[in-house]
Amino acid sequence: MKFKAVIFDFGNVIINIDFKRIYRTFAHFTSKSETYIEKQITDNQLFRRYESGQFSDEEFREIIRQTLGFPLSDTEIDKAWNAILLDIPADRIELIKKIRQKYPVYLLSNTNNIHIKASNDYLKKAHGISNLDELFDQLFLSYEMNMWKPDAEIYHFMLKKLKLKPNEVLFFDDNVKNVESANAIGIQTILVEPPTSIIEYCKNIF
Predict the structure, then answer these.
(1) pLDDT (tens digit per residue) in 13-29
(2) What ranges do the domains of the chain cover?
(3) How far apart are CA 87 and CA 14, in angstroms?
(4) What are phi and psi of 131, to 5 degrees?
(5) How confident is the model over 42-64, as pLDDT tens digits?
(6) Among positive and negative, which fits the CA dihedral 137, 142, 148, 149?
(7) What Å distances lie between residue 2 and 11, 132, 170, 183, 188, CA to CA?
(8) Triad 180, 149, 21: Cα angle to 5°
(9) DSSP letter at 11?
(10) Could you tell me how many helices (H) and strands (E) the chain has, helices first?
(11) Does the structural domain 20-82 have CATH classification 1.10.150.240?
(12) Do 89 and 121 form a contact (C-beta atoms < 8 A)?
C-alpha cells in the first residue's frame, strides 16, 4: 500500500459506540418502549438530518421532543443522545500519534455538535487531551460541512481541501456503504469490523 495521508472515521473506529444505549436511555426518561423510540428516530432520519447540519442544537432538541412526544429537558436529551459514546482506548490514541510521525492523519466523521462536545470532554478527563484537534491534523465533520457519508461529495470536498488524489489516501471506516462509496471514487479503504480494532488492521501497515 502506498499513500500520503490516513483518514479515520470516528465511531467504532476511534471511539467505541453503542446505538442501542440512546434508545434505552430515551425509553427510561419517557417510559416509552425502546422499539418505539428507535422507530421514531429512524423513520424521521434524525441522525442524517442533524449530522448534515440541517438544524442547530436547540432545534434538534425541540425536534426530539416533538418526535418522541415527551417534554424532555435539554439535559435529559443530551444525556440520552450522548449515551451512544463509550470509550477511546489509550492504545488507539498512541497509534494515531505513531502514524502522525510519518503521515498526516485526518478525521472524517458523520457526527454532530453535541457528540463532539461530549467527546472532547471525555478526552480531557480520561486522557488529558483538550480536544480532537490535538489528535488530528484536521477534522472533517459532517455537520460543519453540511454533507454526509456515503455521499461522494463529502470525499471530493475533503480531497480538494487536502490537495490529494483519491488513491493517495487510506481510509478506515466501520460502515460498509461508506467504504464502498469511497472505494468507488478511487480511495484506498479498509473496513473496520468491531470487535476487531484498528490496532489489528494497522499492524502490518505502519
Answers:
(1) 999 999 999 999 999 99
(2) 5-15+87-202, 20-82
(3) 9
(4) -165, 175
(5) 999 999 999 999 999 999 999 99
(6) positive
(7) 25, 26, 9, 15, 9
(8) 105
(9) B
(10) 11, 5
(11) yes
(12) no
